[in-house]
Amino acid sequence: MDEGLMKTYARTDEVFVAGHGAVLQDSTGREFLDFLAGIAVSALGHGHAELATALRDQVGKVVHLSNLFRHPYTEQVATRLCALTDMAAAFFTNSGTEAIECALKLARKAMHVRGTPERTSFVALEGGFHGRSLGALSLTWSEKYRKPFQPLQKVTWVPPEDQDALANALRTDKPAALVLEPIQGEGGIRELSPAYLQRARALCTETGTLLVHDEIQSGCGRTGKFLAAQHAGVVPDVVTLAKPIAAGLPMGACLTTAALADTFQKGEHGSTFAGGPLVCRAALVFLDEVDRGLLGNVQDRGHQLREGLLALQRELPIVREVRGKGLMLGLRLHHSADAVQKALYQRGLIVNCTATDVLRIVPPFVVTAPQVEQALQTLRSTLITFPAAPKEKDKP
To answer: Which class in CATH covers the domain with range 52-291?
Structure first.
């Protein structure tokens, strides 16, 4: 298996060949309930009819042009994203990592424009994950990701929710930007409080630091609002998006406020593939679904799922905590999260394990009420097979 590939992924044996909504089907015909959605990507699920029609149509016209030439959809997607996020300008990318790289370059260039080119460092939060390229990797907290590739960009780390540590870092280090996830994804679905997000905004304004919100996983409606930060009433200087934005095709965006919209000059940043007609058609299908009320389903199914998880917490001692918002939820266990995830997979429910002790549950936005109920039943029937406390040999 995986012949000819670099050994960078721990992959399952099943070969998935089809899907519909929140259901995936493997090559044997077995169906799985997909509550991972390609790691929070497939917002419209699998086999979405309108998406398929739009992409077939576009493939028959033009797939790629480069950004030297115009196509009909670039400005449509950009202006709609800006309206939904209170931003003023967009740079399209092929991934979330590239959106973060754009944000880092933008922050460094902004410091040059302001006459403070010495402000080259960054502040990030412990537990954060921002990507795997050298710049984005610098901001990613886990040492297992960073250690083999050091030295990296200078970053000061502060604990989440520690407002004093954040104030000290911003005032002392004078970084180019503070980069944070309103809800940490790889960090265990850890939600930052409204008070902390509001304080971070105030401190960045005070110190002249750009505030970059990484909403690659929490954005595009996954929490029930288009941006997770909107629950706290916070507008950053820069926001990065990706995962659901093109309903499964590789696309990201770095959005900025009007004050930063003209920071890059022609030739200072670019991408050969980004923002092409095919991915923009997909993004328009997704945005049309948002306009038709898709986030209402995120809110309703998110409430249903969260209430069900809280019921499991009350019933089962193995469950330690329910985290997250909307359809970005985490079930933190006292032990055996990795083993539980594997058992769920064998029973036909796809989630994954993050931060060692959290089951990450991020289904498609189109998930139905019966599917949520089915997932909760599978979770319960699986969790009750595990002991309330770890076996003696498993204790740390």
So the answer is: alpha beta
User: Is 351:344 a contact under the CB 8 Å cutoff?
Assistant: yes
Instruction: Specify the pLDDT at position 48.
Output: 98
The alpha-helical segments, DSSP class H, found in 147-239 are 163-173, 194-207
Place of tokens 């089915």: 374
Query: Nearest-CA neighbor of 163 among 133, 123, 105?
Result: 123
* Closest of 126, 131, 127, 139 to residue 166, by C-alpha: 126
59 Cβ contact partners less than 8 Å away, ≥ 6 residues apart: 278
16-46+293-387 belongs to CATH 2.130.10.10: no
Sequence ranges of the chain with CATH classification 3.90.1150.10: 16-46+293-387
Confidence grade of residue 272 (pLDDT, cut at 50, 70, 90)? very high
Q: How far apart are the first and last CA of the chain?
A: 34
Amino acid (1-letter code) at residue 44: L
pLDDT at site 395: 55
172-222 pLDDT, tens digit each: 999 999 999 999 999 999 999 999 999 999 999 999 999 999 999 999 999
Which tokens sit at 71?
Answer: 């196509």
Tell me the average pLDDT across 128-156.
92
